[in-house]
């Protein structure tokens, strides 16, 4: 066995006379292995970077103007079906209200190519563009147009406000690192974004498909539609809550004819006019059908509404159909509704309801003095609380939620009448 081991050791050069040769072989294997791992890592990183570039449409999610220091958010990058038109949508924060121009002619944009190291490059796509301002909503956007689908490339987009509506004394605020070498940011009120309109991560917007830029259509699809859906879902929830409370009221009314103390029952009280006759009809949404819930009410809060919101939309408009004949101004109509009062029923006071017993006594007199009457006083208290809960929900539904829908329509009308587009030759300059 020793001789056999020596023979194999000699063939494999494992003896002491071959140490240097073995070291070289091991070093070579390690070097080759390391090189293969390095190449694999570089290839993987390159593929990951390419995938990230392909997916990421927006690299800058907020901005601050360089001179007036107005702040805002970038909501997204949207493209048409052919990916030859893109919209970079942004909005000034609410604190900036009244501090920025609402005229697109007062804005200018500059576009160039870039990479992830913020180095300027030539644009891979020939691009023209325009600027759109959505009235006084705080939203504005830059529309990018190309004859061919956008190439995969990060673009550096600089916005300039040529009309400064506020004065901001130089506070010594340090500019972002990528802006410090550009003197225009101290001379003009500007902000810079990095976007990739060719990325797969853009959102498609049907309203970008037309030849003409329509601020109202864009505003509805990209801003209002989601808000309208939230309100509709909330109203469905309110209807379900109201149905549950009405069921409670029915339950307590049934107890009045069933629960007694020594043969004495509650005489059913007169139902408040704000609640009497109300019913929630229809069925909630399920996997096969949309919700058909609706409130049927004899009394409508004078500040509220009861039109069929489900069969219409903010985009189609509700106001023209609900305004009374002869009323020409929706502003006047909405103002009058907000101040309206119910002169016939000036207040909702379920605590003032009369609660009489079949023996002629007043149940309220036993509220604190007779434990024996507790089964009946519990019914009284529960019913009163249910009326209060229902009235609160009904007011929130008829007044608040309906008004929120109409507020969206008013905002959309405002964009339609005052939205502006700057499609001049110098609206967007590329370099």
Can you summarize this structure?
This protein has about 425 residues and is an alpha+beta fold.
Can you tell me about this structure?
The longest helix is centred in the last third of the chain and has 45 residues, at about 375-420. The chain is built from 7 helices and 14 strands. It has helices spanning about 1-10, 20-55, 185, 215-255, 320, 330-340, 375-420; strands at about 60-65, 70-80, 85-90, 105-115, 120, 130-135, 140-145, 155-160, 190-195, 205, 280, 295, 420, 430. The N and C termini lie far apart (about 80 Å). The model is unreliable at about 40-45 (pLDDT under 50). The strands form 3 sheets. Strands 1, 2, 3, 6, 7, 10 and 13 form a 7-stranded mixed β-sheet that branches. Strands 4, 5, 8, 9 and 14 form a 5-stranded mixed β-sheet that branches. Strands 11-12 form a two-stranded antiparallel sheet. The radius of gyration is 35 Å and the shape is extended. About 35% of the residues lie in helices and about 15% in strands. The chain is of the alpha+beta class and about 425 residues long.
């Amino acid at each position: 066995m020793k001789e056999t081991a020596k023979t194999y050791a000699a063939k494999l050069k494992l003896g002491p006379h071959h140490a240097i040769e073995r070291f070289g072989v091991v070093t070579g294997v390690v070097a080759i292995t390391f090189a293969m791992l390095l190449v694999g890592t570089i290839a993987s990183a390159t593929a990951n970077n390419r995938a990230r570039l392909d997916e990421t449409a927006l690299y800058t999610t907020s901005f601050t103007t360089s001179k007036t220091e107005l702040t805002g958010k970038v909501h997204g990058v949207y493209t048409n079906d052919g990916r030859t038109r893109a919209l970079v949508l942004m909005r000034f924060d609410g604190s900036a209200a009244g501090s920025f121009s609402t005229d697109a002619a007062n804005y200018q944009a500059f576009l160039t190519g870039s990479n992830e190291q913020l180095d300027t490059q030539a644009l891979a796509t020939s691009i023209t563009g325009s600027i759109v301002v959505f009235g006084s909503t705080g939203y504005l956007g830059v529309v990018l147009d190309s004859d061919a689908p956008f190439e995969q490339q990060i673009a550096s987009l600089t916005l300039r406000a040529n009309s400064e509506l506020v004065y901001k004394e130089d506070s010594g605020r340090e500019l972002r690192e990528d802006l410090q070498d550009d003197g225009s940011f101290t001379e003009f009120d500007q902000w810079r974004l990095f976007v990739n309109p060719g990325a797969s991560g853009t959102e498609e917007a049907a309203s970008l498909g037309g030849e003409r830029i329509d601020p109202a259509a864009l505003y509805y699809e990209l801003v209002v539609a989601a808000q309208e859906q939230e309100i509709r879902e909330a109203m469905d929830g309110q209807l379900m809550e109201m149905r549950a409370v009405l069921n409670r009221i029915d339950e307590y009314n049934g107890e009045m004819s069933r629960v007694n103390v020594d043969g004495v029952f509650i005489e059913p009280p007169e139902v408040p006019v704000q609640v009497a006759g109300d019913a929630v009809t229809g069925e909630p949404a399920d996997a096969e059908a949309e919700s058909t819930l609706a409130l049927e009410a004899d009394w409508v809060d004078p500040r509220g509404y009861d039109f069929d919101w489900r069969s219409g939309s903010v985009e189609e408009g509700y106001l023209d159909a609900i305004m009374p004949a002869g009323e020409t101004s929706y502003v006047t109509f909405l103002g009058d509704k907000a101040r309206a009062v119910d002169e016939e029923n000036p207040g909702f006071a379920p605590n003032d309801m009369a609660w009489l017993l079949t023996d002629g006594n007043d149940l309220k007199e036993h509220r604190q003095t007779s434990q024996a009457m507790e089964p009946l006083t519990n019914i009284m208290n529960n019913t009163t609380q249910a009326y209060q809960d229902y009235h609160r929900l009904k007011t929130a539904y008829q007044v608040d939620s309906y008004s929120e829908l109409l507020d969206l329509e008013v905002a959309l009308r405002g964009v339609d009448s005052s939205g502006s587009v700057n499609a001049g030759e110098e609206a967007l300059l590329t370099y």
